[in-house]
Amino acid sequence: MFPEKTNYDLVIVGGGLAGLAAAVSAGESNLTTLVLEKGRTLGGDGNYVEGAMGIDSYLQKEQNIAIDAGELLQDELNYSHYEANALHLRKYLSASGKIIDWLHSLGVNFSKVGPQGKSWPTIHTFAGGGHAVVEILQQKATSYGVEIVNSISAQRVIQRNGHVTGLLLKNEATGQYREVATSNVILATGGYVDNPELVKKRIPNTTRLLSVSDGKSTGDGLRLAWQAGADHYQMGAIQYGGGAILDKTRPAYVHMPAQLAAAATQEAILWVNEQGNRFINEDVNDNMCHAGSALLTQSRTFSILDQMAIDHLTNVGLYKEVGNSPVSPAKFANLTSEIERDLANHEKYLTKAASITELGQKLNLPCLAQTIAHYNELTTQGRDTDFGKAKEYLTPITTGPFYAVELGIGMACAIGGIRVDNDSAVLNSYGYPLPGLYAAGNDAAGMLVGDTYAVTLPGSTAGYAVFSGRNAVMSIIVKAG
Ligand SMILES: Cc1cc2nc3c(=O)[nH]c(=O)nc-3n(C[C@H](O)[C@H](O)[C@H](O)COP(=O)(O)OP(=O)(O)OC[C@H]3O[C@@H](n4cnc5c(N)ncnc54)[C@H](O)[C@@H]3O)c2cc1C
């Protein structure tokens, strides 16, 4: 249904984490506010979020976790090769703890705070997951009188003399169009991970990339901003979730909870390329974005497992605690049954063979036998002189049957394409704000990174979604005097 009124102080495009945080902030300040959500349900990828970044939050204080914000800023700038916008990142970092406290004051509970893999201890894990946060924000916004409409998308920003004056809306259910008047628009559409053409601007060969998003992050915010005169800013970073089972027949998220996926990616024994050659230290997955980048350096990638590895994962558990894994059971109790099911279903991504030679022949990997013989020598030496993988991860591949799982690269979100100032106002290519146009969440989060997502600062996109939604509203209120 189209919105009730024809004129609002503020229209927020996108009912995900950033849009709903902005909605609550606008409600707190009594702005007449409309939230447009193109999907039938609210929350976007915010529904799947594990946790949000914060420094100096109430929880960190309770647990005596002290972080030197200056050192962290320097670390992130180095990680991004100074492509991150230091001014904006600094504002976000200094507000981030208060953002966690604000969420807590609304009723959001956090089950823990800490690092993910080798990272800063910044991720505040939501008790009940992202979905619980979405529900709290929605209820709060509605209680303030914010109007939220589903199945309505924003199609175009309307401007007069360069100022925002309204939006063109489309009813996704009926195909009808309507205009609504407003002088303030916040774009919070979730970035562009589900738009293959935009992803291609960042990574030209997309055939092995698999989005684990809900499919609605189609880069609408970028298109709307660019049409309105925004700078075509750097396409930023794609948040790779490391390796993922290469299955083009189902949505990628289906495999996320699979123990076979964890065995082949998070707990990878040996990765080889299209020739059967090893190409990286497989424990690169301590940083899932680095793992994704490494897998993309090859044309095809396979994870090799032998029966000994499967027995070990099943009966003993992980070889090495790996951060960022959505699957971290002590023991992989379902691994064998998942393998049997997938073989019975003739899934293309899984190949079984009695010998290494046979596995190499089946997959046309001419160097596989030689690679494994050499790799086994390294495991005997106890030192990976080729790529420097940690010793506790050097496990020989000797016991049949042998398995190969073909891998693609999972993507959670894509950030970049829009430049904003410290008021979250969208900038043109001269660095001046487009009056009345703001961007928040993934649409603006490219400001925080270089070409690699800042997994060193876990929870940073969710934290930024809440920060930037709220920051945009604060700016609108200040500008309104
Ligand atoms: C599986 C998964 C797990 C993740 N876990 C984490 C995590 O633990 N920590 C973290 O920091 N980040 C995580 N992320 C990243 C996540 O994308 C962001 O943190 C967060 O959801 C970004 O908020 P957003 O509001 O920008 O986008 P979203 O929450 O995705 O919301 C965007 C909304 O805009 C709507 N929309 C799009 N176009 C239009 C249009 N034209 N008109 C109207 N509405 C529109 C969409 O339908 C969607 O509802 C995860 C992502 C995924 C996919």
Automatic annotation (TrEMBL):
InterPro entries: FAD-dep_OxRdtase_2_FAD-bd (IPR003953), FAD-oxidoreductase_2 (IPR050315), FAD/NAD-bd_sf (IPR036188), Succ_DH/fumarate_Rdtase_cat_sf (IPR027477). Residues 9-447 form the FAD-dependent oxidoreductase 2 FAD-binding domain. Transmembrane segments: none annotated. It comes from the Bacteria. Keywords: FAD, Flavoprotein, Oxidoreductase. The keyword Flavoprotein applies. The keyword Flavoprotein applies. Pfam families: FAD_binding_2 (PF00890). Its cofactor is FAD. PANTHER family: 3-OXOSTEROID 1-DEHYDROGENASE, FUMARATE REDUCTASE. This is FAD-binding protein. The lineage of its organism: Bacteria, Bacillati, Bacillota, Bacilli, Lactobacillales.
